[in-house]
Amino acid sequence: MTRRDPEPALYAGDLFGEIYQSQQVEPPVAATPRTLAPGLVTCLIAALAAMWLAEHYGFPAILLGLLIGLALNFLSEHPALGQGLDFAARHFLRFGIVLLGMQVTLAQIGGIGWLPFAGLLAIMASAFGAALLGARIVGQGRYAGVLAGGATAICGASAALALYGVIGRDRLDQSRFTITLVGIALASALALSLYPLIAETLGLNDAQAGYLVGASIHDVAQAIGGGFAISDAAGAQATIIKLARVALLAPVVALVALWLGEAGRGEAGPRPAWRRISLPWFIVAFLLLVVLNSFAPMPDGFAEGGLAASKFLLLLAVTATAMRSQLLLLIEAGWRPLVPVMAATLASFATALLVSVTLIG
């Protein structure tokens, strides 16, 4: 009897559970608590380490989670960890995005006023445009530009994760996605350090400074923290402006899905617009939670707990994603994927400063 060669293999899963051929391994088994536990525990330990370092040394937890995950990348080669890491990267990010909906109400958005809101849309459009232009200049393609522009315009890493769910690994490889996440985290950390100082140096009042910080810093917590670093009034303004950006996550993802939905269909032909605009379930759940929070406000302290849970789930997802990234592909990608992020960040800040000075009293 001749021995049969093993089947060509599977197959590490990426951020959204897609499979790709990597090396010869055993076929996957069904996910159970026993098979998920090793990867989940490893991811949890790495995320807790990132939180501890962030608390004691003042660095953003998302950035530290990315760096620790990349440093522990070799662990993902162990077959026992793969399913748990893939589960964390895929499912935790989705529930983390859903919980962001607890932070926003329609009344907060309406309270901004039409002129400041129009300025906010202009800031977001400038970030998208600059990212697309930067991506084109360095040969990264429009998908890298959409990812960087959307993450900069809305809410940093969580928006990048949501947009990547629409773009997909077949259009933008995960190495460039991971580098974009690193760039977003670095840009947000620098913005938190510099923007409040710039606002005070320029003599902006509390409303202007809060608008500038809330409209241009990527991460939710850092935008709000940057506002309160100036004053309580600036912090309140930054919170409203930033949450208005978060609320635009669902419509922006819908527009991106509509714009990019035809790619890769080949001979299948175009689909109706209502099919192309279909959103991932977690974006729909996010939007529903915003509506629910608008008409039945969350109890005191509940929203704060939701924000903390959302940040922790996103940290777990980002850490797991970094651990599953292929370092060789990251090295080969080089610095070019960072250019769209830098272009979007600079354009966002410049436009936000212009709007703050001219439209905000």
Automatic annotation (TrEMBL):
Q: Name one Pfam family in it.
A: Cons_hypoth698
Matches recorded under InterPro entries: UPF0324_pro
Transmembrane parts of this sequence: 59-76, 88-107, 114-137, 143-167, 179-198, 243-261, 273-292, 312-331, 338-360
Membrane-topology descriptor: Multi-pass membrane protein
Q: Does the keyword RNA-binding apply?
A: no
Q: Which domain of life is it from?
A: Bacteria
Q: Which UniProt keywords apply?
A: Cell membrane, Membrane, Transmembrane, Transmembrane helix
| Keyword Transferase among record annotations | no
Q: Where in the cell is it found?
A: Cell membrane
- What family is this? Belongs to the UPF0324 family.
Q: What is this protein called?
A: Sulfate exporter family transporter
